[in-house]
Amino acid sequence: MRTRILPRVSEAKPGYGKRSAPDQRPPHADDFALLPERERYVAGFVDHLPDGAAMNVKTLAKQLPLYGQQAVGSALTALSVAGHLRRVRCLVGEGEQVRWVFRTFWSRTARDNEWWNAYLDAEDHRAVADPEDGAVPGAGAVLGTGAVPGVRPALCAAAEPWARAVPEAPTTAPLSPRTRAQVPIPAPGAPADTPATPTPTPVPAVPAQPGPGCLSPAYLALARLGRVDHRLALSAADCEALEARATEWLARGVSTDYLTQALTAGLPARVDSPVGFLRHRLKDKIPPALPAAPDIPTGSARRVMVECAQCGTPGRPDALPDGLCRPCRQAAHGAALATDAVNGHAAGREVRAYVNELRDLLKAP
After folding, report:
1. Against a cut of 0.70, is the pTM above it?
2. Is the model's pLDDT at 264 over the cut of 70?
3. Domain that includes residue 265, residue range
């Protein structure tokens, strides 16, 4: 009985690695029979790798004993030209939490450029609709609800019985002797199940005072000027009088730190009227109003870019036919023409030698 040795799999980081293309035919022994020996060997190994396996040249060369990194890289480039794979960059995340992940889409069935372009365009639309695809899951999603980040699930499961054994705190706290004395005792004729209702104590009304959360950022920035420089100490009435002018500054896109620095820079040695001095500064140094930034439609920025299989240059799928950029494609085409010319020249020399031999035979007696 023949034992089959499975390839050693090196997993890539979450979001990276191999991704299988859809609508592939079932595996067969002659899937890559038309490829050269090296490409057939590398393709058979890659085809048996699971999704998420590392697909960089260095990792594959460590797992393939017959070929080095340069040979594996050349084989992957040839497989891209043959229509079996595409290397892509995918933008994952939203807002400021974004990163590029590198994936290799693999198809056992050879595809043409039109199929790959349509498939990668669909992947780009899906990535725009789901920008978190491929991101590293949070600790709660990996460990489960109630898990502690950095602790293995087995330890959390072992801690659950101990957590359940802790008694719950009583919902009603015991009454102190002083509180018990203040609770009225029900009358003798009252039913035992009727709760005694204590007489509410009237609470004097306290006028509501505006807290720091009710004040505007412009008011707070003006109020803090006296702490930055004592020469600009303002009263509450002064802050209310200048609040409208300071709000105009913030409405033009500046921050409170910018406002504070502009008002406190280059102060004279003595400021007789802080409110008058700041009123002039708020009027004379107000920043210019900038036009609003144009809204960029979400679909205009691509989240899936194809990489050249030879040099790694990114681009749109239709700009990299066969997975190669224009310089690499021209270099490969020139090398192919040179090889054909050498082979044709050798064939021509063989024909001339054969003709010369025939002429020698004709001259013989």
Report:
1. no
2. yes
3. 213-284
